[in-house]
Amino acid sequence: MKRVLVTGGTGMIGAALVARLVAEGDGVTLLIRDRSNRSRLQGLEERLSFCAGDIRDEAAVKSAVRQAKPEVVFHLASTPFNPPTISPQMHLETIVKGTMNLMEALSDRPAVRVVAAGSAAAYGSGSQLREDAPLRPGTVLGAMKASASLLLQMAARRSHLHTIELRLFTPYGPWEHPNRLIPYTILSALAGQDIRMTEGRQQRDMIFIDDVVEAFCAAAVKPVPAGSVLNIGFGVGTPVHTLVERLLALMGNPVKPLIGALPTRPDEILEMSADIAAAKAHMGWEPRTSIEEGLRRTIAWFTEHRELANQVAQRPSEPARDTVGASA
């Protein structure tokens, strides 16, 4: 059993990780805002400890660290890529200031291992990207994630914190927010509604949630050097229109994709896929869930749990959760 502090624990990745940690018997404390939507934590809350506060509040972060006395910190708190109406200031305060608050709160605890969720948006566009690729973000979120990455590496050097950044590509699976591509497609098809979408040329490296959680758990215990950055993806870029077509085929093609019905965003990331050799080398990690299997399991979950998906959609107007990848 280990003492664990989690930020961003109400998001899709955070909640799935928390469930895994609880199942393994760890003592888990969540830094959580009063207005957070806790629907993904159903059935877990009695086995968790909570520290009320916002990652943007330096005092709250320090209080959470004092309360949890963590051996491991999983840092997933973030603004999401979508909706695009989130202000640059909110991205800055949540991602950069929030990460800095955590690094300062842990600066006198060098034995703590910090596993943080980064984002492929920090790279900008590119295929088979390695961790040493230049960071050329084309979005505000990507620029803030790149800044947070540098802060994590700085803390490893200055404070001797054992920081590890898992640079996530596009996680998907049960409990994903309904406005994201895969849940939107599934729920629209179940409702008999055609799929309004862009031309779908943009590629995404889809990685199933179970494989993402496995990567976080491995990073907490494997001999990964402090200050490391490791890509977490499937290693294959798939065009969005292909993903939609696969989903609909698996569902029996109940509706049609309306390709080109929506404009492509000006800040769209057109290519996105990972070289995952470093994660294999340092952690022995590689994805186990094929895209076909992951899509089938996701379809099954949303088909059975439409009411839970509706609960996830009921969120506060100021999101600070663990949607870290660029949306499709």
Brief sketch in words of this structure:
The protein has helices at 12-23, 58-68, 88-105, 140-158, 181-190, 209-221, 240-250, 277-283, 291-304, 306-313, and strands at residues 3-7, 27-32, 49-52, 72-75, 113-119, 126-129, 162-168, 170-172, 195-197, 203-204, 206-208, 228-232, 238-239, 257-259, 272-274. The chain is α/β, with parallel strands linked by helices and 328 residues long.
Describe the structure.
The protein has 328 residues and is of the alpha/beta class. It folds into 2 domains: 194 residues, Rossmann fold (3-Layer(aba) Sandwich), CATH 3.40.50.720; 87 residues, UDP-galactose 4-epimerase, domain 1 (Alpha-Beta Complex), CATH 3.90.25. 38% of the residues lie in helices and 19% in strands. The chain contains 10 helices and 15 strands. The strands form 5 sheets. A 7-stranded parallel sheet has the order 3-2-1-4-5-7-12, with helices on both faces. The chain has a two-stranded parallel sheet with strand order 6-15. It is globular, with a radius of gyration of 19 Å. The C terminus is likely disordered.
Give the key terms.
UDP-galactose 4-epimerase, domain 1, 7-stranded parallel sheet, Rossmann fold, single chain, 19% strand, two-stranded parallel ribbon, 328 residues, alpha/beta
DSSP helix fraction: 25-40%
Strand percentage lies at: 15-25%
* SSE arrangement, N to C: EHEEHEHEEHEEHEEEHEEHEEHHH
- What is the approximate shape? globular
Number of domains: 2
Specify the CATH homologous superfamily of the largest domain.
Answer: NAD(P)-binding Rossmann-like Domain
Task: Tell me the total number of β-strands.
Answer: 15
CATH uppermost class of the largest domain: Alpha Beta
Poorly predicted regions: 317-328
How many separate helices?
10
The main pleated sheet reads as: 7 strands, parallel
CATH architecture of the largest domain: 3-Layer(aba) Sandwich
Overall mean pLDDT score?
Answer: 94
Helix vs. strand class: alpha/beta
Subunit arrangement of the protein: single chain
Q: What order do the strands of the largest sheet run in, or round the barrel if closed? A: 3-2-1-4-5-7-12
Spatial gap, N to C terminus: 38 Å
Q: What is the CATH fold-level name of the largest domain?
A: Rossmann fold
Radius of gyration from the CA trace?
19 Å
